[in-house]
Amino acid sequence: MKKIILLILLIGVVFNVRSQSFVGFLTENYAGVNSVIVNPANIVDSRFRADINLVGISVFGGNDYYNLNVIKAINDDDYNYDARSRFTRDINNNGEFNTDVMGPSFMFNINNNNSIAVFTRARSFVNINGVNGIGLYAIDNANDFIINDDNLNGFGQTWAEIGLSYARVLIDESDNFFKAGISLKYLQGGGSAYVAGRNITIDYDADGAIDSGGGTTGSFTSTGNVIYGRFDDFESDDYEYKLPKSTHGLGVDIGIIYEWRPNHGDYKPRKVWPNRLTYKEQNKYKLKLGFSITDIGHINYKNGIEDAFDITNTNVSEEAIDNEDDLDDVLNNLYTLTNTSIGYKAILPTALHLNADWSFTNTFYLNFNTDLSLIAKSKLHASKITNMVSLTPRFESKTFSFYTPISLVQYAGFQMGAGLRVGPLYLGSSSVFTNLLSNKSRGGNFYIGFKIPFFHGKYDKGNNCNCSE
User: Fold this and answer.
1) How far is 422 from 428, CA to CA, in rounded Å?
2) What is the distance of C-alpha 148 from the center of its chain?
3) 75 HSE (CA, 13 A, CB side)
């Protein structure tokens, strides 16, 4: 049955989650080096002399096909997931899964106008688009079904990256303040696989074939074409993971931030014996606007394998599929290989981020953020983020912050969560309240991390400024 499930995964699997990392935390002013991953301009003119991230992990998971009551599922050891869950069946289900581990990273100021950062990350994405959820439901219940899928596209990849960031203040005049930044990233691929289906039909008859024991078993009649690519024969039962060779790439993040500072005169450096009062520890804006594009680039799988199959066949029995050793044998022995090529490029989840942060007081803020994918759903071997819009009120101070992101997420709908930062600890979930209050949660997410911040003091010395009394 394992190989039947693997074949079904080629034809239809559905996940739907938000792929953004550390939701809520990255938009506050004390995110430090972590915020470089969403906009590299964040690191200059920050509230830190230096900042070190030790480790942070963000995990998102869920789906738009299957939902449940999370609280009952946790508290009831005998919870029947199949009987008590709800299904949202559609002819075009979509989604993705994302993990993001930010490893040792640091940032520091070269001077008032220039800052640099070095960061490390390990990431994974799984995207599935264009799945016939109605047929998938029939598969789950072992009923007769017919699937029609015109534009199935699924891709997963894992990679590590090390990045070098530079940010600079461009304009600091009167009410207007601009800064910009760029990150260059070296990428090491950890593995990838993709499938694309075109004009697929599958007709399943639960009792359509005779098995070797004289009884009946299911049969598949199918038409259409499938493209199957992978970095190695990882689907084999005896496969042992090895880091792919010749799988490197480069990535780029760019960003710019504008701050409106109507009270700029209150923050003019002054001589205060024995040092200068520079206000580096304070946020000076009433409104901050951010624009960035992240994950421009790709990883080149020079030894990757891409096979194209014509899956036209009649009355293929479940027993025949189960008797094959692995998924590769299922496709090669039961269907027709039409083309094989070597090498493909795994494209990063390029995204546009727009951010607006309004300061009511020195401690209360309201943030509006949008994350939009710049990768088309139909593009082959490419990761994609899920489009997301969020509104986040927050309280923030040097040692403590609390925020409650309220989000509208493509495919998943309304989500509400909470997060906090206490000293070196940051943690949160952008769906915790939704999971607690809803009886049909589509997913959940969580993040946690630890850092060592070095804040600016009230009397930090300014560089290259003419201070007056």
Assistant:
1) 11
2) 29
3) 5
Q: What are phi and psi of 272, to 5 degrees?
A: -130, 110
Query: What integer pLDDT is reported at residue 266 of this predicted model?
Result: 87
3-state secondary structure the chain: CHHHHHHHHHHCCCCCCCCCCCCCHHHCCCCHHHHHHCCHHHHCCCCEEEEEEEEEEEEEEECCCEEECHHHHHHCCCCCHHHHCEECCCCCEEEEEEEEEECCEEEEEEECCEEEEEEEEEEEEEEEEEECHHHHHHHHCCCCEEEEEEEEEEEEEEEEEEEEEEEEEEEEECCEEEEEEEEEEEEEEEEEEEEEEEEEEEEEEEEEEECCCCCEEEEEEEEEEEEEEECCCCCCCCCCCCCCCCEEEEEEEEEEEEEECCCHHHHCCEEECCEEECCCCCCCCCEEEEEEEEEEEEEEEEEEEEEEEECCEEEEEHHHHHHCCCHHHHHHHHCEEEEEEEEEEEECCCEEEEEEEEECCCCEEEEEEEEEECCCCCCCCECCCCCEEEEEEEEECCCEEEECCEEEECCCEEEECEEEEECCEEEEECCHHHHHHCCCECEEEEEEEEEEEEECCCCCCCCCCCCEC
Number of other residues whose CB lies within 10 A of the CB of residue 342: 10
CA distances from 28 to 36, 351, 359 (A): 12, 20, 11
pLDDT value for 6: 38
Nearest Cα neighbor of 367 from 423, 427, 419 is 419
The rounded distance, in Å, linking the Cα atoms of 216 and 85 is: 30
Total-model pTM: 0.86
Strands 413-416 and 114-131 come out as unpaired
Residue 197 and residue 152 in contact, taking contact as beta carbons nearer than 8 Å: yes
The token pair at 286 is: 């009433």
User: Is the previous residue joined to 453 through a cis bond, with omega within 30 degrees of 0?
Assistant: no
| Rg of the chain taking only CA atoms, in angstroms | 26
Domains of the chain from N-terminus onward: 2-455 (2.40.160)
Least Cα distance to 393 among 425, 424, 361 occurs for: 361
Reading phi first (left if > 0) and then psi (alpha if -120 to 50, else beta), residue 464 is in: left
Please identify every stretch of the chain with a pLDDT value under 70, giving residue numbers as ranges.
1-20, 61-94, 130, 132-143, 233-239, 273-274, 411-412, 438-444, 459-469
The pLDDT of residue 11: 39
Q: pLDDT, tens digit, for every residue of 340-362?
A: 999 999 999 999 999 999 999 99
| 65's tokens | 């096909």
Residue 48 tokens read as: 């830190």
